[in-house]
Amino acid sequence: MDHLDEFDRHLLNLLSIDSRQTGKQLAEKIGLSPAACLRRVQRLRDIGAIEKEVAIVSPKVTGGLVTLLVMLELARGQPDLTDGLRRKLLKLPQVKKIYHVTGNADFVMILECASMEAYANLTEAHFYVDEIKGFDTIVVLRSYDPEPG
Amino acid sequence: MDHLDEFDRHLLNLLSIDSRQTGKQLAEKIGLSPAACLRRVQRLRDIGAIEKEVAIVSPKVTGGLVTLLVMLELARGQPDLTDGLRRKLLKLPQVKKIYHVTGNADFVMILECASMEAYANLTEAHFYVDEIKGFDTIVVLRSYDPEPG
DNA sequence: AACAGAATGCGAAATTATCGCAATTACGCG
DNA sequence: CGCGTAATTGCGATAATTTCGCATTCTGTT
């Protein structure tokens, strides 16, 4: 990955908060011409500094009214089994992210479910299996994202 | 939030994977004219179905070589103090997300730091304050995302 | 100090988004 | 059923944005 200067970092910062800014808007904020900004952005895409650009869809629309953090403790022993488990869990539409972590838990998952009952059903269907020794659920009351700045 | 039909859901799905598609591209995929697609997308933005559009920056670039989950336990008492704390933490570039949660912890934060030492410095600078009673750190060994599709 | 490579700004050309408008569709209500 | 209203569509035309070529400026090296 090539070298990035301050302009590049500034652009990445701006676009990571709002990727729909025009060259002109970017130009005013970082002090380059619109064309130079867009050339740099295109380059950032080409070299992979910008992995992708996506729309964040409201959980209300996706049906995810409840966000949950689940700490999964696995039965030790067979890496291939946990691999299969992980892949299975990642296929569930409620699963937004899985972290393999240190500590008591082996996995931390981020879920979005339509309701607590939907989550209860999910746990019954997927968490009471041999590979999983136990799990802790943390309910998210509210989430906060970094602000533009 | 208004009603969304199949076209809207299809658009949301497409844009949540790649928000940089032109009206023409969207039109070919969902079977409407480019103008109709873009009008619908604009409406999805207006009603908040699309919360925002962002660039995903490679962690290699952000310097985020280590991902951490931090469970913060706060000293109870003053909601305004914790509000200020939260806002302060959200301003740190390492902080990617803060969840206000149920359970022993009050906040769960997702951090990306350049190194464990950088994280140690961050804890020393920000976690040893009156508002924070204690914290637990979970190191992410690897993260997994759902596949598109 | 000279040179080569890279990046810049400017303006033209191409692509894309937005707007107005007439026609079509969807739908509630008499 | 049929009418009328409101919403949505497609089709240009217009406006905005991006992309490109090119001469110039900046950078770093020998």
TrEMBL record, chains A, B:
Record-linked SUPFAM superfamilies: Dimeric alpha+beta barrel (SSF54909), Winged helix' DNA-binding domain (SSF46785)
Entry GO CC: cytosol
Record flagged with keyword Transcription: yes
UniProtKB keywords: DNA-binding, Transcription, Transcription regulation
Any one GO molecular-function label of the UniProt entry: sequence-specific DNA binding
Gene3D superfamilies per record: 3.30.70.920, Winged helix-like DNA-binding domain superfamily/Winged helix DNA-binding domain (1.10.10.10)
GO biological process: response to amino acid
Record Pfam families: AsnC_trans_reg (PF01037), HTH_AsnC-type (PF13404)
Record InterPro entries: AsnC-type_HTH_dom, Dimeric_a/b-barrel, Tscrpt_reg_AsnC-like, Tscrpt_reg_AsnC/Lrp_C, Tscrpt_reg_HTH_AsnC-type_CS, WH-like_DNA-bd_sf, WH_DNA-bd_sf
Domain HTH asnC-type: 4-66
Cross-referenced PANTHER family: LEUCINE-RESPONSIVE REGULATORY PROTEIN, TRANSCRIPTIONAL REGULATOR AZLB
Protein name: Lrp/AsnC family leucine-responsive transcriptional regulator
